[in-house]
Amino acid sequence: MVMISDSLEPLIRSARQVSFNEAAVGPAAERISALELPYPYIAPPDCLAGRHDEVLNWLFIGQAANFNWWLDGWGRVFGVNGAKGEDALWSAITANWEVFGRLETLSQMDEKTVERFLPGAPLAKFRAAAFQETGAILLEAYDGEIVELFSRANWSARLVLDGITGMFSSFSDRFEKNLFYARAQRYLGLVEGYLKQVAAGQTVSGESAGCQVPGGPSPDCQECVPAGLGDLSALTVTPDSQIPRALVDLGLLRYSPKLATRIATGQQIDETSPEELELRALTVYAGKELLAAVNGLRAVRGQVDVTAPQLDRYLREAAKTAKQRAHLTQTVFY
Predict the structure, then answer these.
(1) pTM of the prediction?
(2) For the chain, how long is the longest CA-to-CA vector?
(3) What is the rounded distance in angstroms from the CA atom of residue 223 to the CA atom of residue 136?
């Protein structure tokens, strides 16, 4: 498997609209290295307590359609019952898990059904296609459980990433030879966070209103998960529209005046444009350099390394209060 960061090197070297500011790495790393960085985590509903196979399916099915939540600018974001964006997605899937968790139904989910459960969601046709593919391939290739892929891959993040992006086109986030794999990497980060919580005996249940498990409530996979994934070094921070915001605020990324104006005025950036590819590639590169610097400082203090999913969560939280606006790109990849 080609490493994601290696695939992006030519694009990084030729970038013109986005640049990396090496001088900002040290100060940012000093600040971050002193923090305890938790893993990404979405609390599973209590109806899935102890059903690790179902939780991994729940996370995977949600991530299959977790893309492009803005509609027509900064003020209008998809929402249901007070929840916004991806929070609304998780809420809807949880409340209707008897539908979404039944893979035979999921594999036949059409656009109208998506609109019924996610009213007003953009790109409903593409979400329906992602749900259909997810349900069909899970049934055909993995006996209905994504945990089967993890087991075959010996719980290696690198091998699972290869399997997901190779089998599920909705997760195959690449352009020509440039590999990004944003949603697949976010999924693995969430799985790692869940495994850490399970290993520590600290699993927290989330909302469960309306949540029912297809086929009955009895747990059937109590002892089938390890304490964490192997090969996490294969992962990068997520090259989407949120992580660059935090990296700009930290001073690691800089935009050309032209690109900065386009982003500030809410102009769309095409998903295959040079600007978009540079934004995503330099996000991966800046994240890699920042992670190396953070771990270098932690090693001096005798602390364990942090991983890309942990840094990704920190940057995603920082993006919520970042001064830099997110760039707008209509895409199904993040």
Answers:
(1) 0.93
(2) 58
(3) 26
